[in-house]
Specification:
This protein is mainly α. It has 15 helices and three strands. A three-stranded antiparallel beta sheet has the order 2-1-3. A hairpin with a 5-residue loop joins strand 1 and strand 2. It is flat.
């Protein structure tokens, strides 16, 4: 049965006789003191760290945090810092509490004799199979610092691509949400005030105004149910997507067919495919295994299935470029560069150039999309807010023309 490690807070004197404090991960206070003595620290007190009652404000570990950690570790290793000491330096330099605990846990496993890949594999939520296999390849070949640098570059480029797409989607989504909220407030608070005024007119109201008034009455009566249904629908959809592979695959296929957005998703998948395959192949991973890892990192079910067909064809002896062409999903540039790479023995370099090209294409497409979306958003806002205002003031204008 595995013994669960605990975080202990210690106070004592360091090697230079200065008062110091910090945290250490160990199975017990006694083992924590042993670890501290090995580090040259004379601990006066070692206490178990208490967990906060409320953890709502605690930051979760994101993929960007893992990318930063990988880059820091790679930099330390290239500078000649021993691995365990590199973990200590990185842990002390982060303000992210959960990230510090994760680093300390991995450091404890490594210092006890576990390989780095094995220590990382214990946390599959943060380090996927591709990450661990690349690190294992570096450990086996004695080039861990080089491999960590490649993994860090891969993670940084992947996260930069994701961040670019998320940034393009955040603005329109936030604007639409604000527009819906403002429209709801107008329907619930402002329109009823106009309705009371219209009652004294003693004349028929325009059809557009009547429509808005009835909509306002309906929203006032059912706004809570409407809001509840909205959140329930969003929750049920997210659960269905997570639990149903068929639905998730169908949504991935739809994403590729969307106007404008579909081309961005396509280019992003091609960039990810090229970058992942380039990184794994350069690390010395056999091509069949590299394709399996690439399929898992594709990010789209349609292309993941195609990459697995490519893997099967390559296993049967088909050249990579021909296997890719057979799927009919990959662009001509990728096919030509792959063929050149196979013939020249520089497949990883060629794929890296393809990845650079499509990452730049995604950047340009996202910038163009942002410029295109802005006037569309303004038009939607104008129709929603302006339409309500016109509906409310139309009877007043008509009354003035009669007088």
């Amino acid at each position: 049965m595995a013994i669960e490690n605990t975080v202990f807070i210690w106070r004592g004197m360091d090697r230079n006789g200065r008062k110091s404090t910090g945290e250490v991960l160990a199975a017990s206070a006694a083992l924590a003191r042993v670890q501290l003595r090995k580090q040259g620290i004379a601990a006066k007190s070692v206490k178990k760290k208490s967990k906060p009652l409320l953890t709502f404000g605690a930051k979760s570990i994101k993929a960007a945090d893992i990318a930063i950690f990988t880059r820091q570790l790679a930099t330390m290793m290239k500078a000649g810092v021993p691995l365990v000491q590199a973990f200590d330096i990185v842990a002390e330099g982060t303000d992210h509490e959960k990230m510090r605990e994760l680093i300390t846990t991995i450091r404890s496993d490594v210092s006890s004799g576990t390989g780095l890949a094995g220590a990382l594999a214990k946390h599959p939520l943060f380090f996927d199979e591709l990450f661990c296999s690349l690190v294992a390849s570096g450990e086996n070949s004695g080039t861990l610092e080089i491999m960590l640098d490649r993994v860090a570059t891969y993670k940084e480029k992947t996260e930069a691509l994701k961040a670019k797409i998320k940034k393009a989607m955040t603005y329109p989504i936030a604007t639409i949400v604000v527009a819906i909220v403002v429209t709801g407030i107008l329907l619930v608070k402002v329109v009823p005030q106009f309705a009371e005024t219209f009652q004294s007119f003693g004349s028929d109201l325009p059809g557009f105004t009547l429509l808005v008034l009835r909509l306002s009455e309906w929203v006032q009566s059912w706004w809570f149910i409407l809001l509840l249904c909205f959140f329930c629908a969003g929750y049920l959809f997210s659960q269905a997507k997570r639990r149903s592979k068929r639905l998730a695959d169908w949504l991935d296929g739809v994403a590729l067919k969307l106007p404008i957005l579909g081309s961005i998703v396509h280019d992003a998948v091609i960039a990810r495919f090229s970058r992942t395959l380039s990184t794994t192949f350069a690390a010395g991973v056999p091509l069949v295994e590299a394709l399996e890892s690439t399929a898992g990192a594709a990010g789209n079910a349609v292309y993941a299935s195609a990459i697995r067909r490519i893997r099967d064809d390559v296993t049967a002896g088909t050249a990579l470029a021909i296997a890719i062409r057979t799927t009919g999903l990959f662009p001509t540039m990728l096919l030509q560069m792959t063929a050149i790479g196979e013939e020249s023995g520089a497949l990883d370099d060629m794929l890296g150039k393809v990845a650079d090209h499509y990452e730049a294409a995604v950047d340009n497409a996202v910038d163009s999309l942002s410029s295109l979306i802005e006037p569309i958003i303004m038009s939607v806002l104008g129709i929603l807010i302006g339409g309500l205002m016109i509906a409310m003031y139309l009877p007043i204008f008509m009354l003035g023309s009669v007088i």
